[in-house]
Design goal:
The protein has a domain of 200 residues: 2-Layer Sandwich (Transcription Regulator spoIIAA), CATH 3.30.750.200. Helices cover 41% and strands 15% of the residues. Strand 4, helix 6 and strand 5 form a beta-alpha-beta unit. Helix 3 packs parallel to helix 6 and helix 6 runs parallel beside helix 8. The protein is globular.
Length: 378
């Protein structure tokens, strides 16, 4: 939070922060970048990943811990804790004569009274959520949709009843899980407030899907995407650039575009493939089974993907590793990295122009993904 203590805050009132420092709730390790950018409340409905086998992830973000469903009672208690924190912050605002408004001055007064709260993740998250209107919520962890529908409906309804300001509730979802839910179940969840699903498609190529042990086929991705859209959800599909490596780059790009064209998601979000120790694909790379593409080759893969896209939606490069390059001592990204990206088909030509610009930039100035993961010796 790091508020400026020199801000104009009334000093005639003593701020009691004892209650704020006593509250805690469970928060998982991940959320989509767009949910951080919109200052979403993170509410943990499930723990870890229900699949945990993808060779590019392998559940490492969760320390390979077992997947668990949290009980509705546990989740509702966390919602109550968020409400208690929110009520206490607003009470302090009233005492400071801000009429319940949650602004930077209120935050400064609270942190000035108890500097330890600046490192209290629960307080900081709830404060920022309130400050930006308490409009969006992200349900953690990797596949909240796997919850029994009636239980998830109960959580959604309780959340909306407790915080009427909420406008959007989102979740990660596995395509396989979407397929297994009935259309009516999905529609009911959407009506209850679950409005956006983030799906890790990664690739639309069956050979690559099988190789990375994604546990789903291209046909199932299409079925899930269409079903989610029919149920009324706003849909974000994630694509992992270079997941097939140098050998499968072209088929990965072309088949991914084909699947995306059939789904017609609202957002296509590009995520460059990363590697790290402990991952099965890291071992494949170390042994020469998987060969990573160079920065220019990755850009050409993006070009093939974009050229073959025939969608109406947004294509987003909201990850810092998307075509990152140096110019003297500064670093730049080729594409804009906001969460709304480029509007297709209107800005398709613009994206292709940017790709050509990136290919004209000397490849030695592009930052190779290997530099980010300490693999330059490999």
């Amino acid at each position: 939070m790091a508020y400026d203590a020199s801000m104009n805050v009334p000093r005639t009132h003593t701020v009691d922060t004892a209650k704020l420092s006593s509250y805690s709730l469970e928060v998982g390790p991940i959320r989509p970048p767009s949910e951080g950018g919109s200052h979403s409340l993170l509410l943990r409905a499930t723990r870890n990943c229900s699949w945990n086998r993808c060779k590019f992830c392998y559940g490492m973000i969760y320390n390979r811990e077992k997947f668990q469903l949290r009980s509705v009672d546990e989740i509702e208690k966390d919602i109550d804790t968020v409400k208690a924190i929110a009520d206490e912050i607003k009470a302090i605002s009233w005492k400071l004569e801000y009429g319940g408004a949650v602004n930077a001055d209120v935050g400064t007064a609270i942190i000035r009274s108890d500097p330890n709260l600046n490192a209290n993740h629960c307080f900081v998250m709830v404060f920022n959520w309130l400050r930006f209107g308490a409009k969006t919520v992200f349900l953690q962890d990797a596949n909240t949709l796997i919850m029994p529908t009636e239980q998830l409906l109960g959580v959604l309804r309780y959340l909306k009843e407790t915080f009427p300001t909420i406008e959007r509730i989102t979740s990660y979802a596995r395509a396989k899980t979407v397929v297994k839910k009935s259309l009516e179940e999905l529609k009911e969840l959407n009506r209850a407030g679950l409005s956006r699903l983030h799906v890790g498609m990664e690739t639309g190529d069956d050979e690559v899907l099988s190789y990375v042990d994604k546990g789903v086929t291209a046909a199932e991705h299409i079925e899930a995407g269409k079903k989610a859209k029919e149920a009324g959800f706003e849909l974000s599909e994630y694509v992992m650039i270079d997941l097939g490596g140098r050998a499968k780059s072209d088929q990965h790009a072309r088949n991914t575009a084909r699947v995306l064209n059939e789904i017609a998601p609202d957002f296509i979000r590009l995520r460059p493939f990363m590697l790290g120790p402990g991952l099965p694909l890291y071992e494949d790379y170390s042994q020469g089974v998987l060969e990573l593409s160079s920065p220019h080759e990755r850009l050409r893969e993006v070009k093939t993907l974009v050229e073959n896209l025939d969608v109406t939606g947004r294509v987003c490069f909201d990850h810092f590793l998307n075509a990152w390059y140096r110019d003297s001592d500064r670093r730049y990204t080729l594409f804009k990295q906001d969460y709304d990206g480029y509007k297709f088909p209107e800005e398709k030509a613009k994206v292709l122009e940017l790709i050509e610009e990136g290919l004209r930039i000397d490849e030695s100035t592009h930052i190779h993904v290997k530099e980010m993961i300490g693999m330059t010796h490999l």
